[in-house]
């Protein structure tokens, strides 16, 4: 049947339903779209890779710290709340820097993939996004405390230009080509695309370009890493050529009874390789000792001086056993270590410059030490000049300082947490006041002054150990630098405090080992330790966080005796 216009209708006057015909072209269209989306994501990832590789190469001509990952990582550390920093150190330990850098790379990879997908439809927007992240990297590099100026922006900017150019090219290769239009007709959007296939974009050309870009980026990145590694050769050679002279004042021999032979207890002297490292340097500075200089200036400095490494090496050297502790050390934590240091008395150097402590009328009460990486650390002048063995340290455990621990020179001050005393890679000392200047950590809510708190730790048995019933040796270390440990006590469950056996004391600036023979009975038990220092102060049971001036509380472990 038909209607007045000649159209076919069914007996009910409705138009007949025309069945949809599925063609091979229609079935393959979703697959073509997925391939194109995957290629867009790959384009973004390759653009990000190229950007980082180009930045790595250029950073070798500027300085490694100017690279975008290091610069953004450093800026992230600078702006991260103290509580988050403390959490990262607690959770990841000395791997916190690796975790941070890995996280930054992962975030950059996700952003690069996203920009690649954006560029599929908006090529200029995607490439502009790459350039924007280059500007962010440039800002991070030039805003770091150790920035050398606008030149530090070059690696991020050059990398961004390289990445944006690559994304623009690859995204162009993914644009669908219009199907040919028949003579006298209009284009069919579902018509088959011209050779080489049905995707609407030249897959072969894209794969060739992407492979070439990946290979070139890998080569450029490897070259950049090699050049960056070679930048430290002079510093490595300068360290290898150093022979530390015999100290004029050698450390006393460690008393025989200072080292307990208890399995599981911390060694009295911490090996250099096992010594904790907590700092903000994502790239360990490699400083050439031959060109290194230390400037001393500021309030109350009658005679400013600039010292070379040879100047310090030619002075009277002293050698001392000193235990260092990080303020981020939790109760029972491992960020404490004992080493033998050799160096120059800092008080003598300051006195030669005419510096007097405030207790003797000097105008400066704070010594601000600056590192080559821009770190600033403030130390009370009175503490440095009160007779304790505060050092400009040149060596550690019989060798020149390792790069990771401050080569060529660092500060060591017994009795103070590292963040207010132990400046590594030091290059400048300024005498000032606490009222007029806040160093790096003080600006981030840590206390300006921080003497080390009296603490003790159970090394053995370990938490959740299952010792056998009978005599179990409980042992560990206790420290109260510059005051000394007077006694250590152990408590089993809620029982009375019992005296532990103290190892012989080396000096009041070192930790002290202790042991306690426990007659263990079957079942679960809690072991707790506390120390008393030479001033009579007993380690408190009040738990506090590490912020603002170090953790407090008593260490305990839970064990099950079989």
Q: Can you offer a commentary on this structure?
A:
With 562 residues, the protein is α+β, with helices and mostly antiparallel strands. The chain contains eleven helices and 18 strands. The protein has helices at residues 24-62, 68-79, 82-92, 96-121, 123-142, 154-173, 203-231, 233-240, 309-313, 346-352, 381-384; strands at residues 293-298, 305-308, 318-325, 336-345, 366-371, 376-380, 391-396, 399-400, 410-412, 426-432, 455-460, 470-479, 485-492, 498-499, 501-502, 512-520, 523-533, 556-561. It starts with 23 loop residues before the first helix and ends with a strand. Mean pLDDT is 90; it is low at 4-8, 20-24 and 187-199.
Summary keywords:
562 residues, alpha+beta, five-stranded antiparallel beta sheet, globular
Topology overview:
Elements: H1 24-62, H2 68-79, H3 82-92, H4 96-121, H5 123-142, H6 154-173, H7 203-231, H8 233-240, E1 293-298, E2 305-308, H9 309-313, E3 318-325, E4 336-345, H10 346-352, E5 366-371, E6 376-380, H11 381-384, E7 391-396, E8 399-400, E9 410-412, E10 426-432, E11 455-460, E12 470-479, E13 485-492, E14 498-499, E15 501-502, E16 512-520, E17 523-533, E18 556-561
Helix pairs in contact: 1-4, 1-6, 1-7, 2-4, 2-5, 4-5, 5-6
Helix percent band? 25-40%
Q: What's the arrangement of strands in the largest beta sheet?
A: 2-1-10-5-6
The poorly predicted ranges are 4-8, 20-24, 187-199
Q: How much strand content do the residues show?
A: 15-25%
Protein structure class: alpha+beta
Sketch the major β-sheet. Answer: 5 strands, mixed
- Outline: globular
